[in-house]
Amino acid sequence: MTLRELVNKFILVDTPSPLLKQAPTTIAFFAAVVLTFVVPSLNFTNWGAALGGIWGIIIATALATIFTWSPRFERIALIIPCIDLLAIGFFRLGTGGATSLFSALIILPVIWIAVTPQRRYIILAAIGTSIALMMPFILGFSPLESANDIIRGIFTPIVFATAAGIVNEMSRQGRVQVAAIRALAEERDLMLRGAVDYTNRLRENEERLQAADRLTRSVLDAVTEQSVIGTDVTGLVDVWNPGAERMLGLTAADAQGKRHVHEFHVIDELLERSKELNYPPGETVLNPGFSALVESARLGQPEVRQWTYVRADGTTLSVEVAVTRRVDENLRTVGYIFVATDVTQALEVSRLKDEFVGLISHELRTPLSSILGYLELMRDDEENPLSDEQLQYLGVAERNAHRLLRLVGDLLFTAQVGSSSFSLDAIDMEVAPVLRASVESAGPTAAAAGVGLQIDIPQDISMISGDPVRLGQACDNLISNAIKFTPRGGTVTVSMKNVNDQVVISITDTGMGIPADELDQLFARFFRASTATRAAVPGVGLGLSITKAIVTAHKGELDVASEVGIGTAFIVRLPRKQ
Amino acid sequence: MTDAALRVVVADDDPDIRTLVSIAVRRAGLDLVADVGTGDAALDALREHKPNIAILDVSMPGLTGLEVTAALRSDPGLSDIRVFLLSAGVTDAARQAGIDAGAEDYFFKPFSPRELAAKLTDIVAASRTAE
Question: Whole-prediction pTM value?
Answer without folding.
Answer: 0.52
